[in-house]
User: Fold these one by one.
Assistant:
Number 1:
Amino acid sequence: MKKKVLALLSALTIMATGSMTAFAASPTVPGTEAPAQGQVVATTVTQMKTATEYTSVTQVSDGFSVTTVTQTVVQQVAVTVQNTLLNNLSHIGTTFASAATSGSAQIAASSYSNIAAAAEDSTKRVTASVLSVVDVNAETATKASNGNYVVTMNISSILSTDAIAVLHYNGSAWETIIPTNVSNGSVTFETASLSPISIVKLEVESLTMAPKTGEAMAMMAVVMLAGLAGVIFCGKKYFG
């Protein structure tokens, strides 16, 4: 009887282990990788929207249309942003800034240079805001003479000074595209194929924060009390 119970437990353990292995090795959502050597800046991906919400805030230029991706694609983007953009900020920032200074892209070179400089600064944090994840479809649009579609995506929160990156799923992997133009409310880029497209904004902020309002008020109260005590002490000494 004991042998049968042990055999049953052993079989259940093997089945459970096999299930866990299959779950961890998901082929759809990649795992988070380590940052590039020498990168010490803190990084974060802001809270993601749902696939439907992304469609509602995204418009596209004439000849194209947008449709809603699956929630799995949104999850893919979150990890891809970390691995492809945030984990190698020096390369991303330098490459994009170079495109701006060479005149091949009308984007804010200084914004991307700031991203590159932050990579080795532990007092900074770089935040990636995923502004859109949608399927872009060609309705009446045709490719330009260089074989690429020229797409303009309209998202009201974009500013011309923003450091914007475009991610495109080419059927086998996510690739990074440098925009050809970033303007208030829109980003333009070229791509050989369409499929899922994501628009990402990168921002640098300092981790050295000013005291919160409550903390500042408390500190002010302490200073005032200390000053009042000094006045009382001096008064007693003078008039006493």
Number 2:
Amino acid sequence: MIGNILILGDQNKQGLELKDALRKGTHFAVRVSSLSGLTLAGIAEKEPDLLILNPKAGYAEAMTLYYELKKEPALQDVPILLAMDESEMGQADLPAGIQEVLYRPLRLSEAVARVKLLFKRVRKVDQKNLIQGGKLSIDVAKYEARVEDKKIDLTFTEFELLKFLCAHPGTVFTREVLLNKVWGYEYYGGTRTVDVHIRRLRSKIEGKNSRFIETVRNIGYKFTAEEEE
């Protein structure tokens, strides 16, 4: 089987439309499972390679479901996407296990492209690369980032963005280029998502004695790995 995707949530119109779009646009096996009466063991038995959380309610219910899923050992390493109304997100800081957010109402062609790209990345990890930038090191094989000896908890997209920047030190990238190289498609929501991910990255990897990502005014960002006195 090329891929087993499970959409968790009420079998509403958008969930069913996403299932149909993924089936038509990919070779994945896609199912929708209602949360009513569903157990962690029941989800694990379906052996999903990718989970899409599509709760009827808002962010709070989604996070409750997320943390319940992480209690099941068989599901701890399964990549998770969240389908959510943008108004529900606010300034929410997503946990590391959620790799992407699909904003409702869904743009189906965009959603399919993002799911395909994420699945490709999850399945094709270079087992040899070790990227170093000052105090920052990235182990691609283990999918880990560290500042000195401290492991940094990153979401999937934050990791991919940091990896790309760190692999090209000193090179300035526009937001549009980062969208294309990291997200792998023309992101319909605009370039603001790059700024959001950069801001979250900085809050996690930078401190008063180190700076890794520099903003180049009116252009974009570059990896610098500066140590401040």
Number 3:
Amino acid sequence: MRLSASKLFAALVVLGLSSAGQWQLPAGEGSPGAKAGDYSELYGRISRAVVGITRRDYPRGRSRSTIAHSGTGILLDPVGLVLTSPTVVPEGSRNIDVYLRGGRVAPAVLIKVYPEKEVSLLQLKDFRRALEPGRDRLDYLRPGSSKALAIGDPVFSLGNAFGSIQSDDQVAMAAGVFSAMIELKDKHPKSIYVGRALEFTAALNNGMDGGPLVDARGNLVGLLILNFSRQRWLGTAIPIDDLQELIRPHRSWFNDRFENNDAVAGLELMRSHEGGQITILKVRADGPAAAAGLRRGDVLKTFNGKKVETVSGFQALFKNASPGQQVRFEVVRDKAPVAVEVTLWGRF
């Protein structure tokens, strides 16, 4: 049996993990009873949040359409916010396609580039086009703490190595250890990032730039980049702790279960790319919002009399709410305005 180049590459990675992995994965969320050297459960849990990205000179279907670059991205929330690098999607990019496992492809738009920090942020135009049958949300990686890494801790690099997601429906994965926190001082033709960087021994192959570095629990700890130290020659990633403030304002999803607030309403919100509406994505059946009559699909207009135009704007307003407080949501439902009074619960 003959293997394609990317299948052979993936097979070599798996063999390398099976023979070289010597660490015991710590017990934690999603990894009960994990055995030393057994990374298949970890891979299955996080690989669906890693995507391939292509950028084309012309729209798909035109005879002149060519792929300018192919790389990797990271799903950051269940409604399609994607973190990648300007080496994959530079300023001014158009005709962007995001490839997910299972042969799913969804168009995306570039929403922000921070060149000096080597960050590009994309948003799927319609995340529902990328959903697997029977699912109502996308898999995504939760941020960990790059500051919590200790030298010798196991880390894993994942990505669209040599276009493996498009060609073989496989996310390449490699294992290594956290080597050091270093300072990158020199810019290079393909990577201008300078500053603090995580150094690691896991493989970083062609097409994996813009992908994730994760810890043994599968949490995102770094963004893979192409810069390196000429004195050291190991893989590098930007610490996720250094990127959180850049990412947070562009989130298009809110879930009060995961917010660091005292009050709870029991709902999720999302901002649609087309139209910019803030829509209630989910109302938990046992929560105060459901009891008050808010529904999935309601379009949020105001909160306590103040206009809501962005998810981050709602976060800022909701952060000041207290348990037991009665708040007013003004929504549009079936083209008609509706006002709903919700008595907030406390977190417990």
Number 4:
Amino acid sequence: MIERKYRRKRRRRYRAVVIDGKKIFRTTLFLAAAGIMIGVIVSAFGGEIKTVPEPSPPPETDAVEIAAEADNAEADSAVGEDAEAESEGVENAENAENTADRLKRLAALALGFDPFVPSGAVATEVRGAEIVNSYGIIADKDASAATPEPTAEPTPEAETEESADRPDIKPINAAQNARYDDYQIRIGNETSYGIDINEMLAAPLTFDMSGEGPKVLIVHTHATEAYAPEGAQQYSRGESDRSMETSENVVAVGDEAARILNERGIETLHDTALHDYPSFNGSYADALESTEQYLSDYPSIRMVLDIHRDSVVYDDGTMAKVVTEINGKKAAQLMFVVGTDENGLYNPDWRENMKLALKLQEKIDERYPDLMRYVNLRKNRFNGHTTHGSLIIEVGTSGNSLGEAKYGIELAVECIADFLNGLR
């Protein structure tokens, strides 16, 4: 396994919210200028559009009908000219629309955000905005799919003030098909975008795994995310679910993923830097800097997997752990998260990431139908613009143990490796 750490940036500290008024002012001016430019283009082309006149009512006298029949050839010729003009006008309008789209895309690329989305400029400055944890994604209704582990009935003596401050860790089956028998891929779509699952599954990916050099980068934007102790059935409200020790947090899960990929012939790099330390705000910007450095040093990289740990806590303080049993062993369930450009950050090709997530979901489901939660499509970008193979993988929750998380990622990555080897 190849491992590199980019730590020179660790001196940087972030404020929770940093808004550059000059940048927003420049963006406003740019937006106004671009709007005028696009309006001129659309007006120039759109003014030429002609429509075919609607036919006149049928004539009421035979004399008029005879006269109309005599002019049929001339009328047909006029209609043909109108249809040709309409076609040319529509084509000009489409060209104008394409030009406008290209200008908007160029502006977004240059600025790093979409100036035509009101939240775009602000999203670049609010560094803590992209928090991926689902928290309330699993609602109480999902408890119907739970299979709680047997626990000993507490004795009256055990019900102390201390135990009252230790809420339960509740095992639930959060598999995408936990309450269905059809085993179809399901999407938790938090955006306004429509997704045709079958169309994306049938479409080819825009990258392959041919050539030499590392192909996968594993990174941890929130590297300090940790897990519950092995066998824990309760947790203390005062205990942190984060750890600086890479043997205890999601970095250890990343080690397992990198090991399996490398063993199966897919050269993988693992960035073990703690991008959410010392400041959680700014962790995505920090991880992006490292990711871009890796991509610059290793242009062969095709996929960036950002491995996280989810957190699901109910209103009563109960903590959920998403778990299933495979081959007689408990495995934390996983979830792919795909970012988009809906909140304004530059990410025009997010559908390529979505295609990959759906194809991997299908591959894993074939072998382990209860391992994956639904695919989560989000408004935020989550650094998904760096490659056409950029995905977040949520491995378990804060209620799962590290052992369950490692086993879950092992099963999933075996399937991912098989899929990637098929792209050579």
